[in-house]
Amino acid sequence: MSENKKWYSLDLGLNKTKKSSGTCGCGNAEGSCSSTPKKEEELSPDEFYEAAINASIGEERHKDGFDQVFDVKMDRRSAFRKLTASLLIGAGAVSTSCSVTTGDKSKEKAQIDWEEQFKGNYKLMTDEEKQGTIERLMRSYELRTDKNISMTAENAAEDVLFGYAFNISKCQGYMNCVSACVEENNQDRNSEMQYIRIHEMKDGEGFKFDKADDNYYHEVPAEGHFYMGTQCFHCDNPPCVEVCPVQATWKEEDGLVVIDYDWCVGCRYCMAACPYDGRRFNWSKPEVPENEVNKNQHYLGNRMRKKGVMEKCTFCVQRTRKGKNPACVEACPTGARIFGNLLDPKSTIRWVLENKKVFRLKEDLGTEPKFWYFMD
Amino acid sequence: MKNRTLIYYVVLLLGISLFSCKEKDGYHSISDKIEGESRPYHGNLSSEDLLMDTELIQITEGEFTFLIPERKGQIKSFACIECHSKPVSQMKGTTAQKAHWDITLNHANSDAMDCATCHNGEDMNSLNTLTGKNIDFNLSYKLCAQCHSSQFEDWKGGAHGKKVAGWAPPRASNTCVNCHNPHSPSFETRWPVQYNTQKGIERKEGLDH
Amino acid sequence: MGIFKVFKSLVIDSLDTITKGSAKYHLWMGFLTLVMLIGMYCYSIQLEEGLSATGMSDRVSWGLYISNFTFLVGVAAAAVMLVMPTYVLKDIDFKQAVLIGEGLAVAALIMCLAFVVADMGGPSVLWHMIPGIGVFNFPNSMLTWDVIVLNGYLFINISIPFYILFKHYQNKEAKKSVYVPGAILSVFWAVGIHLVTAFLYQGLQARPFWNNALLGPRFLASAFAAGPALIILVLAVIRTFTAFKIEDKTIKKIAMIVTVAAQINLIMLVSELFKEFYAPTHHSESAYYLFFGLHGKTALLPWIWTAIPINVLATIILTFNKFRNNLKVLYVCCGLLFVAIWIEKGFGLIVPGFIPGPYGKIVEYLPSGIEIGVTISIWALGAFVFTILAKTAIGIELGELRYKDKNAENV
User: Fold this and answer.
1) Do B202 and C295 touch (CB under 8 A)?
2) Keyword annotations for this protein (chain C) (predicted)?
3) Is the pLDDT of residue A361 over 60?
């Protein structure tokens, strides 16, 4: 980790066992990474350790999205103890790092949880720090499930500004985009969270969203109807970013409006500020069956979320920063969705903007969405 | 004296307007920004890796030059002359095994189109324009463009159709027949791939509109 | 010697005071504690399950917690209506009431903060909001403004009464030059907290129901009606149960404030209704939903049609001197007004802001049992805090609590 952190980091000198987690070359999971035998100070009895773990990471384990698929079933502790534990989380973590008793694996887990709990805002991290946190997250996943994920932290590429166009006359309402999005982005299956909504509108009534149906189930395209998709529009002047009290959401250089799930405090002010219904909140612990987890992840994109944080469409940052199209664009069978680089004069999205009659939703609000609609 | 106060006021006004200027990057709107920062892309991101597995050919139509998937290799019974060794008129009524029996033409009405509109009975290895010129199977879009000119314009620009993979250059666009069955080009009605039961419950409870 | 010794003695004495009292007092405190414990249990369930334990959803993402928060900021701000005449306009009448008012402000602010924390999805990472350690999105986010002004106001409202009581505790006269500037500051600050809280909503272009220029002033007017109304009720209770002397004159003066504020509030309400219903636009749908229901969705009708009539009724009754000077009528009116404004600012303001949603979809909101439990317990917390503060303050003001210099005795 770099020395000049931009945030206050709690290091009480108790973290001397810190190792470059996740990157230990030795494949052995059970702590053989540490070649030198550690001093095992038997500071406290096992019960104390247990309590400390409970206080520090037990609560987090429950809230934490990272273990949502790992089936780590903690025994149900009494409600009051949990309450106290959550309040004393910091204190608990201190005692955890003090007590160096049980296996290296759980110690490493505790170490990772500690560092994750008190890490800074991703937006302000240096590249090494970003690398550090994704390595911890990957290692943490491995420790909990014995399975590997690949997580990246690509920054915005230069000379790229992402934009999107939606062809209203082409969309047939098949909803392939919706299910591709859910699978790609590891959205909560319990609450059936979806970033994309396809509104079925009646011909001749214009864009009457209030009369539209966004959860139809009949053969499509239905007679006398047309379809219009909405999702996060990645505004150039995003009201959600302005209102966030902790800068947990921001606009990246390539125009993506992203969220640091670990920095979000869950106040939902951004949700109230969004005129486009673009944001979703994890009202309970998000769950994705292990075999359905998309393991190609990005820190700002489809990595596992936790309970009580916001999330939203990121134009599939994990894909688009590698040159791919977002999952919805790729899945669309009708070619109604066009994605590309707004700054490249030769890109197809630019041709659409310059040659088709494009419009955006609620332009009068001054949000400058980077999501245009057009018709043939 | 009077002038000086005036200058002060002007400076103050400028200062205020500077501070109150909300545009952080100095552009008034996203279109100004696109215009202002637009430059040919020479970045590191490329779709080349994603296109590795696809056989592509380069075409130039007007000002546009881009890649489209190669077609002939995808047609199962190509080359056609392996069976169509004689013109169709001579093969008709023979006892040879029937092929393509499942193809029904569901494209325009029968007054406007029949098999010969696109296929050349004399030379089955090529397609056939309305004026009887040969078109390579790889360039079948030219055939479609004869009637569907506005779609063709949109396709060339990129408003119609899909990319093969990735937004990053080089541009590789699917051609007409990658999405449309030329014998029955319109999309069929079908059921949406999914239904949100949670929203369904909400609605049943009378909570949703 | 020193201040610390006096302080220690004050803490011990006040602990002594608040743990002793009549059976009624113990019953009251015991009841509050029970309610708080039940609330803590509810909150623990909410922590465990997430905010899905509440009635909120993606469509109505703020509910009872934020409603109460908004209302209580108003109650806190209203303490200023007592401070101003006493310290700034030198109207001595109010001096007795001021300490109570400021105690009420402190309790209300603590409740505000508790409601905000209860509404958070990740209370364990709230430190992200602490400037210096976390990232504080100031001045862009109105929520950060709110954090600053609320905490500042809390500080002012704790320090001024504390200074006065601390001096009185030592049998000294509090220096005016010390507390009057603070009091004057708090007058402006109080207007600030409520205006900033209004801006929290007013600044959202996504929600046309809130995005109107009248919201801030209306917040102030309704706050200055509901807050002093609560103070009147509290004073009435204190008058009945303690030896603390509060003259009728004081109560009547506060009643005057309540009346004027309630009248202004009604004028603004009429103006708002006129704007929404004379030439209704697409943006009037929230108001339609609130007052008449939309597409058969009518969950808020009982609330708003309870609130508006009793608000109008109470205001009309208070307008007549004859009724207002009758204390019994006054108390009833204050109670009615308080309830009416609570409904108006909660169910009548926060919830319809989300209905219909950005794309016209309507999902109604009803608080869950858990949510109601937590809400009631936070109110109990406020009552608890206020009772402690008031009991100590009254003890000092009545001269029951006095610093005894043991050194002096020994000599």
Assistant:
1) no
2) Cell membrane, Membrane, Transmembrane, Transmembrane helix
3) yes
Alpha carbon of B204: minimum distance to chain C alpha carbons (Å): 12
Low-confidence residues in chain C, pLDDT < 70: 1, 87-89, 91-96, 405-411
| C237 part of contact set with chain B, CB < 8 Å | no
What's the domain count of chain C? 1
What residues pair up with A281 in beta bridges, in sequence order?
A: A310
Asked if C206 and A7 come within 8 Å (Cβ–Cβ), the reply is no
C285 in contact with B at a CB cutoff of 8 Å?
A: no
Contact between chains at C360 and B209 (C-beta distance less than 8 A)? yes
For the domain that residue C127 is a member of, what is the CATH number? 1.20.1630.10
Q: Is residue C408 part of a domain?
A: no
pLDDT in tens, A155-195: 999 999 999 999 999 999 999 999 999 999 999 999 999 99
Q: What is the ipTM for the molecules in this complex? A: 0.91
Q: How many CB atoms lie within 10 A of CB B100?
A: 9
Q: Say yes or no for a CB contact (<8 Å) between B208 and C361.
A: yes
Domain containing A341 equals: 162-374
pLDDT, tens digit, 9 for 90 and up, residues C347-363: 899 999 999 999 988 88
Q: Do A219 and B159 touch (CB under 8 A)?
A: no
Q: Is A321 in the B-facing interface, judged by CB distances under 8 Å?
A: yes
Q: Give the pLDDT band (50/70/90) at residue B137.
A: very high
C286, C364, C368, best to mutate vs chain B, most B CBs in 10 Å: C364
Chain C hits for A210, CB-CB cut-off 8 Å, are: 285, 356, 359-361
What per-residue confidence (pLDDT) applies to A75?
A: 42
Is A344 within 8 Å of chain B by CB?
yes
Q: Which residues contact B45 (CB under 8 A, 6 or more apart)?
A: A157, A160, A321, A322, A323, B168
Confidence of residue B95 (pLDDT cuts 50, 70, 90): low
What average pLDDT does this structure show over A1-25? Answer: 43
Residues of chain C found within 8 Å of residue A307, distances taken between Cβ atoms: 50, 121
| Contacts of residue A182, Cβ cutoff 8 Å, sequence gap at least 6 | A189, A192, A193, A194
Q: How near does any CA of chain A get to the CA of C56, in Å?
A: 9
Residue A156 lies in a domain: no
% of chain B residues with pLDDT over 70: 87
Contact B189 A165 (CB under 8 A): no
Q: Is position C409 within any domain? A: no
Read off the CATH number of the domain in which A206 is found: 3.30.70.20
Task: Please tell me which chains touch A, using 3 or more CB pairs under 8 Å as the contact test.
Answer: B, C
Task: Decide if B162 and A348 are in contact by the 8 Å CB cutoff.
Answer: no
